[in-house]
Amino acid sequence: MKAVKIVAIVVVAYAGIVIAFESLIGYFQPADETTIVITTTDRDGVSHDRVVSRLESSGQLYVATNHWVRGWYNSALKQLEVRVTQNGETVDYLAKSVTGAEHDRVADANRLPVALRVLTGFPPRYFVRLDPRGLRDE
Fold first, then answer.
1. pTM summary value
2. What's CA 94's distance to the chain center, in Å?
């Protein structure tokens, strides 16, 4: 019975660490030279900015959901049109979900450190390809 209590305490403590880390990332949205600001619009027409990591693979621009909370991701795939701000310049893009071989290629080219995976609770990772507006891939 004591072992069960210890395991339960460890699980609860780990969940608390993940929730705290995810909350801090969402609140502070740390930005540097490897990040971009993606702007999505919700169904009420309200714009939301989110700092995300800028990824590249085979000359294409991508962003990834590396966390459990992914409202911007769902908005981007529903609306398809997003704005990206990087280095003070804002450009319109079309968002496309990445699957199959393309997903595997982007994941292999942009691996996450194990420590980050542990701190975020091992969420599933999804990618969005950002195509410059007018180059939509059907």
1. 0.83
2. 16
